[in-house]
């Protein structure tokens, strides 16, 4: 005799994959994770728009740099291949290596969707854009008392031009992700 088992709504399996590693991964972790699972053309677009300076975490920068090299060389990208690259370069040794390995593991287990890679890239560049303004404000405050007057405007113009270029990259990414403001 077979009995039917009633499944309560709370016991249903969710259609979204949940992260295995870090439970609240940062947008940087999600970007790297999505790059591991994205298609090659989206991956190449992202590594063209996102710069190392957009990533705040130095370990994320290292992994992103490897992904960029592989994407530009039209080579496959996945966690095992990146770990192999890190191992061959001697970058997995010691404390630094453990942190790089954790960064890669967190990204690979983040449940990031490859299809959302442009949205994650836009989020990372957006955070970087705001950090740039915060750092510019701090720098201007400090430089206002230490730079000669004739150099102040030149510094501000250069910084403004860099902010404008950053804004253009962010706008392009937002448009590509369908989240244009």
Rounded radius of gyration (Å) = 21 Å
Helical residues, percent = 55-70%
Rounded mean pLDDT score = 88
Give the CA-CA distance, first to last residue: 60 Å
Could you give a short account of the major beta sheet?
Answer: none
Number of strands: 0
Report the sheet-strand fraction. Answer: under 5%
Task: Characterize the overall form.
Answer: globular
Secondary-structure element series: HHHHHHH
Task: Decide which structural class fits the backbone.
Answer: mainly alpha
Quaternary structure annotation = single chain
pLDDT < 50 stretches: 5-15
Q: Count helical runs.
A: 7
Descriptive overview:
It is built from seven helices and no strands. It has helices at 27-37, 40-49, 58-72, 79-88, 94-108, 117-146, 149-177. The protein is mostly helical and 181 residues long. 27% of the residues are buried. Residues 5-15 have low confidence and may be disordered.
Features:
single chain, 181 residues, mainly alpha, 7 helices, 0% strand
Write a concise synopsis of the structure shown.
By secondary structure, the protein is mainly α.
């Amino acid at each position: 005799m077979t009995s039917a088992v009633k499944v309560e709504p709370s016991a249903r399996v969710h259609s979204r994959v949940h992260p295995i590693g870090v439970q609240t991964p940062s947008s940087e972790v999600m970007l790297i994770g999505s790059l591991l699972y994205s298609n090659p053309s989206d991956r190449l677009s992202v590594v063209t728009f996102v710069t190392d300076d957009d990533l705040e975490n130095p370990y994320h920068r290292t992994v992103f740099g490897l992904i960029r090299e592989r994407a530009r060389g039209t080579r496959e990208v996945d966690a095992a291949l990146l770990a192999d690259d890190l191992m061959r370069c001697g970058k997995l040794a010691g404390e630094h290596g453990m942190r790089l390995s954790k960064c890669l593991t967190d990204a690979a287990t983040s449940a990031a969707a490859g299809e959302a890679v442009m949205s994650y890239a836009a989020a990372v560049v957006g955070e970087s854009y705001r950090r740039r303004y915060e750092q510019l404000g701090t720098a201007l405050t400090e430089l206002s008392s230490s730079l000669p007057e004739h150099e102040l405007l030149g510094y501000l113009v250069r910084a403004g031009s860099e902010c404008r270029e950053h804004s253009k990259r962010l706008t392009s990414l937002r448009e590509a992700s369908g989240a244009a403001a």
